[in-house]
Amino acid sequence: MTVDSIRVNYIGTLNLMDVNPEFEMVLLFNPQNMKFVSADFDGNILGQFSKERDAPDGFGFYPMAAGKFNASRNIQIVSASGIFEYDVSGNLLNSAKRWNQTIVGYSFLFRQPIFQVHSFV
């Protein structure tokens, strides 16, 4: 089956993040309300979710790259806080968060560190 367009019954702006022909699924993202929407090739919504920035199962401020379906048909999101895996309904299945990271600013003019920030995610 060749699909060149999909109509999804959704009110809002949706950006395309991933197309998976094997699973016949598309992943869409509404940047206005940070909502992920997954649909099949017939346009049926399979699931949708959004996460608060500081929620225990949230991925942080904004995705750093397009989300994608992994081999398990789950959604993988990369953000500044780490890598997160959700099912199509938004349940957190797995995460790899950054912990106790130290960021050092470096002055090329003086050739030495000029500030240090400790990040606890």
What does this structure look like?
By secondary structure, the protein is mainly beta. The chain has no helices and 10 strands. Strands 1-2-3-4 form a 4-stranded antiparallel beta sheet, with no helix packed on it. A 4-stranded antiparallel beta sheet has the order 5-6-7-8, with no helix packed on it. It is globular. It starts with 14 loop residues before the first strand and ends with a strand.
What's the structural blueprint in terms of helices and strands?
Layout: E1 15-20, E2 25-30, E3 35-40, E4 45-50, E5 68-69, E6 75-79, E7 82-86, E8 92-97, E9 101-107, E10 112-119
Antiparallel strand pairs: 1-2, 2-3, 3-4, 5-6, 6-7, 7-8, 9-10
List keywords for this structure.
single chain, 121 residues, mainly beta, four-stranded antiparallel beta sheet, 10 strands, 0% helix, 47% strand, globular, disordered C terminus
Short description:
This protein is an all-beta fold. The chain has strands spanning about 15-20, 25-30, 35-40, 45-50, 70, 75-80, 80-85, 90-95, 100-105, 110-120. The radius of gyration is 18 Å and the shape is globular.
